[in-house]
């Protein structure tokens, strides 16, 4: 009975969807954006929008949500495939192992692994959020949406009625140890985006992404505004991960996917560099993070704009060459 209840609808069966070019390109853009803001954001000469800020949302603060969102797309697809090939429980165990290993890798890559308030960077948040999403990812869209809202609501309650958000802003980052309750909202919304894509209907995909995008952006602004007698102004803050930022950033993810879908899946147009970068996101992210500190020994944080951009160009070309080699030889490193 459980297997029957979890069986995906026919229109979502992965073998009816095939390789989705727009998701590959979208993932590649997220990886490129992560590399760019993580590298260029360290230079004082670069505009503030390339850096993360605690009280407002910059371009840099739009990148991690994109990656978490596209992780949700791939997670839904891989779990549907896994459940169909290996059965529900084996797929569940495989997913749990994958995201637990991601958490461990993320912690080991931190400069000071004993400094637990600073564990909560990209890989750790993805791993923890994946574990939180695991019980819901093969459920219906309604169940996943309710789970996403429930996790975000629980996180917001904790931040509102305890001193947790004050502690996170002062001592941690990206929501701290409870932040995945907010990040998982983005991941589960990504699974809903996959459901739209898997239908194969351009009308449903475009209207669905547009409606979700506009609704979540509007809710983000609504929760950001002061409510006289009820709440004060809540900023867009990736550091705090409270609901205005999470809702608005997720809405932008739905909207940002639309041009990729139109160009790649409808127009058959793709940017080769993004396909390459999106094919081995884990290995490129890990190696680039380790290499950045080495590369920046040749350019100081006070370098002028042209020197900083030239350094980034060299940095990117090196990792594009690595990605190209892996892609050309059909080497895809996954957990």
Instruction: Give the low-confidence spans.
Output: 1-13
How many strands, what sense, and barrel or not for the largest sheet? none
Q: List the helices and strands in order.
A: HHHHHHHHHHHHH
How many domains comprise the coordinates?
A: 1
Gap between N and C termini: 30 Å
Gross morphology: globular
The tally of helices reads 13
Mean pLDDT: 88
Describe the structure in your own words.
Helices cover 67% and strands 0% of the residues. It has one domain. Residues 1-13 have low confidence and may be disordered. It has 335 residues and is mostly helical.
Distinctive features:
335 residues, mainly alpha, 13 helices, disordered N terminus
Layout of strands and helices, then pairs:
Layout lengths: L1 H5 L14 H20 L22 H24 L1 H22 L12 H12 L7 H21 L2 H8 L8 H19 L3 H23 L18 H24 L5 H8 L1 H15 L9 H24 L7
Helix pairs in contact: 2-3, 2-10, 2-11, 2-12, 2-13, 3-4, 3-8, 4-5, 5-8, 6-8, 8-10, 9-10, 11-13, 12-13
């Amino acid at each position: 009975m459980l297997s029957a209840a979890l069986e995906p609808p026919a229109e979502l069966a992965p073998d009816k969807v095939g390789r989705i070019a727009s998701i590959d390109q979208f993932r590649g853009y997220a990886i490129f954006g992560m590399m760019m803001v993580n590298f260029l954001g360290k230079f004082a000469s670069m505009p503030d929008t390339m850096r993360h800020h605690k009280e407002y949302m910059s371009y840099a603060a739009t990148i991690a949500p994109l990656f978490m969102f596209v992780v949700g797309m791939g997670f839904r697809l891989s779990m549907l495939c896994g459940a169909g090939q290996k059965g529900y429980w084996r797929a569940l165990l495989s997913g749990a192992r994958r995201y637990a290993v991601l958490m461990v890798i993320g912690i080991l890559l931190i400069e000071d692994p004993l400094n637990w308030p600073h564990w909560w960077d990209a890989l750790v948040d993805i791993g923890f959020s994946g574990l939180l999403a695991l019980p819901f990812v093969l459920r219906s869209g309604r169940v996943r949406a309710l789970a996403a809202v429930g996790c975000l609501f629980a996180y917001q309650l904790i931040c509102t009625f305890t001193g947790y958000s004050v502690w996170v802003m002062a001592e941690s980052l990206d929501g701290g140890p409870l932040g995945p309750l907010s990040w998982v909202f983005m991941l589960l919304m990504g699974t809903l985006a996959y459901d739209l894509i898997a239908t194969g209907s351009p009308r449903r995909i475009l209207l669905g992404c547009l409606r979700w995008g506009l609704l979540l952006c509007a809710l983000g602004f609504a929760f950001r505004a002061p409510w006289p007698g009820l709440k004060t102004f809540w900023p867009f803050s990736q550091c705090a991960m409270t609901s205005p930022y999470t809702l608005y950033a997720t809405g932008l993810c739905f909207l940002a996917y639309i041009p990729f879908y139109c160009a790649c899946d409808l127009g058959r147009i793709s940017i080769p560099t993004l396909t390459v970068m999106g094919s081995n996101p884990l290995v490129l992210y890990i190696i680039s993070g380790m290499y950045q500190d080495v590369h920046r020994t040749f350019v100081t944080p006070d370098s002028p704009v042209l020197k900083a951009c030239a350094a980034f160009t060299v940095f990117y070309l090196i990792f594009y060459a690595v990605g190209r080699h892996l892609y050309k030889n059909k080497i895809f490193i996954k957990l």
